[in-house]
Amino acid sequence: MSTDAFNVKVFGCRGSYPKPGQDTVYFGGNTTCYAVKIRNCIIIFDAGTGIIDYGQELLKEHQTDKKTIIANLFLTHIHHDHIEGFPFFAPAYLYSTTINIYGACTSTCSLVEMLSRSMLPPYFPVEFVETHAIKNVQELSDSDTVLLDAATGTPKGLYHGSQHLSCDPDDIQVKVLRGYAHPKGGIYIYAVIWRGKKFVFATDTEGYIGSDQRLVQFCQGADLLVHDAQFTCATYADPKLPKQGWGHSTVNMAVEVAQKAGVKKLILTHHDPNDTDEIVRSKQTDAQKLFSAVECAREGTVYTL
Ligand SMILES: [Zn+2]
Ligand SMILES: [Zn+2]
Fold first, then answer.
1. Where are the transmembrane segments (predicted)?
2. CA angle, corner 108, sides to 102 and 112, nearest 5?
3. How far is the CA of 48 from the centre of ligand 1 (A)?
4. CA distances from 154 to 44, 71, 79, 95, 249 (A)
5. Overall number of domains in the chain
6. Structural domain span for residue 180
7. pLDDT tens digits, residue range 79-94?
8. Which ligand is nearest to the CA of 188?
9. Is 153 part of any domain?
10. Is the N or C terminus of the chain more exposed, i.e. has fewer CB atoms within 10 Å?
């Protein structure tokens, strides 16, 4: 593998809650976690149960190369399925680890407060502050850009809106788009840009008629787009249990965004926990009739940009 590779690995792509078992062995049952690796920089999107296995992988690397672990964790939002793996993320228990955590606050609660509330006795024996790693929690806003150093994996700066970016060609940019189509506080969509390559992570978002135009613009020309597609059109509009307003997309909504934005490859994520491998496969087949470069996310898959 080239040292200049821009890799995206799927550690969890199941929506709502973990779904282990015979019926989900192929695509996987862990909730959302994707990891980007560029040189020595680790960028993690969401801390669903998928982050647990990633933690073990990082720990093994750490035992071999003795390098300290520096992880940049970007949270789309703090619904359970996107943070429930954090208490079991093994590197968080090493004094030598640094975890830079990024996400949103609400009007009444800071990000660190929300994370702390998710790890409290009697629900969990270890409090967020008691985990040994150095944790730098940074709240982000719409249109922010975080600059990361590809060589060291550490943050170099945070820029707001149209502020002039002063960066080296080798710096990694992580850009933020606030999405409003997810109950109740919305979500953050992220783009990672490095050396002319672009990866967009857009989970837990619902489409609009004519597509989410802000998202289409944000994804323009992306090499890889991971987009929510929890539902088929039939399940989305099921008159017995309509899913409109639940904050998740159909396959068609995801494909529309990819087509309008000229995305090179589309990965469908946040598989419904009720969907067996067979159903996810048939969703993939349906999607491929609409867009040739599309597949359903599967745990363990690595995409190289
Ligand atoms: Zn979710
Ligand atoms: Zn959610």
1. none
2. 35
3. 9
4. 13, 8, 27, 17, 34
5. 1
6. 6-304
7. 999 999 999 999 999 9
8. 2
9. yes
10. N
Residue 1 belongs to a domain: no
Q: How far is the CA of 246 from the centre of ligand 2 (A)?
A: 9
**Ligand in nearest proximity to the CA of 246:** 2
Nearest ligand to residue 77 Cα: 2
Report the CATH number that the domain containing residue 179 is assigned in CATH.
3.60.15.10
297 falls within a domain: yes
- CA of residue 61 to ligand 2 center, whole Å: 31
Structure tokens at 46: 């969401």
User: What's the pLDDT score for residue 301?
Assistant: 98
Q: How far is the CA of 203 from the centre of ligand 2 (A)?
A: 8
Which ligand is located closest to the Cα atom of residue 203?
1
Distance from the alpha carbon of residue 189 to the mean position of ligand 2, in angstroms: 12
* Ligand number, closest to the Cα atom of 16: 1
Is the pTM higher than 0.90? The answer reads yes
CA 128 – ligand 2 centroid, Å: 21
Whether 158 is covered by a domain: the verdict is: yes
